[in-house]
Amino acid sequence: MLQLQIILAGIAQGCVYGLVALGFVLIYKATETVNFAQGELMMLGAFFALAGMGLFGLPFWLASMLAVAAMALVGLGIERAVIRPVLGQPAFSIVMLTFGLGYIARGGVTMVPGIGTDTHALAVPYKGATLQAGGVVLAAEQMIIIGCTGALCLLLWMAFRFTRIGIAMQASSQNQLAAYYMGIPVQRLNGLVWGLAAAVAAAAGILLAPFTFVHANMGFIGLKAFPAAIVGGFSSLPGAIVGGLVIGLVESLSGFYLPEGFKDVMPYVVVLIMLTIKPTGLFGERVRKKV
Q: Is residue 38 within 8 Å of 225, Cβ to Cβ?
């Protein structure tokens, strides 16, 4: 039974990794840019939810939805004001720009008096609750994370499969130039993708908050989500979730069965093995270019 609880804990943690990795993949597919500020977007989403509950007295679910919506607007603003003007520049410049955005977000939060330098608990209504299933005690926080991740993935799949915007996003991600010539507003879609990635990151931060609390450095979890995106394949949205589950399970099992210190190293060992065996990831597609 203990092993089952360890596996469930790894799956729950992996779901958070997968959601953050989903943002990496969404932005990469749309703009071929790796957004290393994705973890900080997650952190900001958690702080927005905390502010909604603490400053305005909103209930948890309403504060969470407003935080996700606010982060979608933040993502749109970042793409329009910061990313769009430098598209077409060398990829290294854009990557360093996203690093800078992450540092600015983290520094901006720490400058808020009485909030930024402290660790806060998000008062979720299911904190400490447990479920009984066949003699196994399950933490409600873990089941909420797994359930919400599944629901969010289903919602995203339906949006990409059945809506005009989702279909246009798929077309743009495959070939932006062809999509532009077909009349698809590629620049506007890129903004929507950044907004969607920020919203998903905010949802991940809110789900993670009961475990790690809310603090300025919680965005460093992006360093674990990036290996998840590599393992799943940077060109695959389902691969991001699967990669997150793989990293979460490896981390949870190694933390229990292996000596102290291996837990933080094993995700990167998995990445090295994956790059050796299948460089494109589990679900990635091999792209060939004529030279």
A: yes
β-partners of residue 214 are 120
Output DSSP code: residue 21. H
- The confidence score (pLDDT) of residue 137 equals 76
Q: Of the candidates 169, 138, 143, 137, which has an alpha carbon nearest to the alpha carbon of residue 156?
A: 169
Per the DSSP assignment, residues forming a β-bridge with 138 are: 131
Give yes or no for residue 289 having a pLDDT over 50. no
Q: What are phi and psi of 67, to 5 degrees?
A: -65, -40
Find the length of the chain.
291
206-219 tens-digit pLDDT: 999 988 889 999 99
pTM of structure:
0.92
Residue 237, pLDDT > 60, answer yes
- What is d(CA 50, CA 60) in angstroms, rounded to the nearest whole number? 9
Alpha-carbon distance of 262 to 231, in angstroms, equals: 18
DSSP state of 282: S
Cβ within 8 Å of residue 78, ≥6 positions away: 101, 194, 198
pLDDT grade for 36, boundaries at 50, 70 and 90: very high
Closest residue by Cα to residue 280 from 243, 242, 233, 245: 233
Q: Which two tokens stand for residue 276?
A: 């050796």
3-state class (DSSP) for residue 290: coil
Helix (H, G, I), strand (E, B) or coil at 258: coil
State the alpha helices, DSSP H only, in the chain: 2-31, 38-54, 60-78, 91-110, 140-162, 164-174, 176-181, 186-212, 222-232, 237-257, 262-277
Give the Cα separation of 168 and 136 in Å (integer): 45
